[in-house]
Specification:
This protein has about 280 residues and is an alpha/beta fold. Helix 7 (about 185-190) links the parallel strand 8 and strand 9 (about 195). The strands form three sheets. It has a seven-stranded mixed sheet, with helices on one face. It has a six-stranded mixed sheet with strand order 1-15-2-3-4-5, with helices on one face. Helix 6 packs across helix 7 (about 185-190). The chain is built from seven helices and 15 strands. The protein has one domain: Purple Acid Phosphatase, chain A, domain 2. This is Phosphoesterase. It comes from Blautia pseudococcoides. GO terms for molecular function: metal ion binding; UDP-2,3-diacylglucosamine hydrolase activity. Keywords: Hydrolase, Metal-binding. It holds the Pfam family Metallophos.
Length: about 280
């Protein structure tokens, strides 16, 4: 059986007033099935009792011969456990854009999962009201050229605002931004918490060196894996998982993902389910 680890981040914020919130974040499943019908994943999520499940893209595998049934089956079980908010990755985007290669399969899939109760956020924002707390979740769908290999000038804050509007400073803002490549722009946009995947943890991770290579063949990618913090006007910095995150910082978390494709390689880089505990400042 393919195994995975659970990584928990505790985030203390003054935008959560009284009631702690818990989210599970999933990325880059790519049609992989862990155990029998992903039962170990669902058992773990059920034991966590999250307030919502956040998907940071690439649940599907965007290849012409790949089925959408594994992703649909996963979502049909996930919605029984908690509300599911799903931001697109490049594989979802590819299947939806290139209908010459993929036909209308993804549009049919999108319609089906919405009927299940999945909230698919394609440059859209959802306001969650949970136990008297307010959280905004935005799914970013960047123009597809931003996923091209080689040097690509990333989007600026103005372009992001054109795609998804501006953040609300009064509520806790979570941005589902599949590729971490443009982390600087996400911080500039103003998200309190940025959730990314795409790099599969750097495929190979080594002590002191961190993530070695991304799936788009970039060496030592910035924001390759883990937790990054930005305080006021300072530059974002890599942070240790064991430290509690305070409300005066913006946070970016890049997950290792639960699956892989094409290069099915993981060295010192286990599959990962992420848990986010958002705590009031006084807790």
């Amino acid at each position: 059986m393919k195994r995975f680890v659970t990584t928990t981040y505790k985030i203390t914020t003054d935008k959560i007033k009284r009631h702690p919130l818990k989210f599970v974040m999933i990325s880059d499943l790519h049609n992989v099935v862990l155990g029998k019908k992903n039962e170990p994943v669902f058992d773990r999520i059920k034991s966590l009792a999250p307030d919502a499940i956040l998907i940071a893209g690439d649940l599907v595998l965007g290849k012409t011969d790949a089925s959408l049934k594994p992703a649909a089956a996963f979502l049909s079980e996930a919605v029984k456990l908690a509300p599911v908010l799903y931001g697109p990755g490049n594989h979802e985007q590819r299947m939806k854009l290139f209908t010459k290669d993929y036909g209308g399969r993804f549009s049919a899939f999108e319609k089906k999962i919405k009927q299940m109760g999945v909230t698919y956020l394609e440059n859209e924002r959802m306001i969650l009201k949970i136990n008297g707390e307010t959280v905004a979740v935005t799914g970013l769908d960047l123009p597809y050229e931003y996923y091209e290999r080689g040097p690509v000038k990333g989007p600026g804050r103005t372009e992001l605002e054109g795609l998804i509007g501006g953040p609300d400073k009064q509520v806790y803002e979570i941005l589902l931004a599949h590729t971490p490549r443009y982390g600087d722009a996400y911080f500039a946009w103003g998200a309190d918490l940025i959730l990314s995947g795409h790099y599969h943890g750097g495929i190979v991770r080594l002590p002191f060196l961190g993530s070695i290579i991304s799936p788009d063949l970039r060496l030592f990618p910035r924001y390759g894996y883990g937790e990054y913090r930005k305080r006021d006007g300072a530059s974002p910095k890599k942070a240790g998982r064991r430290q509690r995150i305070t409300g005066s910082e913006q946070i970016m978390i890049t997950g290792a993902g639960l699956g892989e494709h094409t290069l099915p390689l993981r060295i010192n880089n286990p599959r990962e389910l992420i848990v986010l505990e958002c705590l009031p400042k006084e807790v």
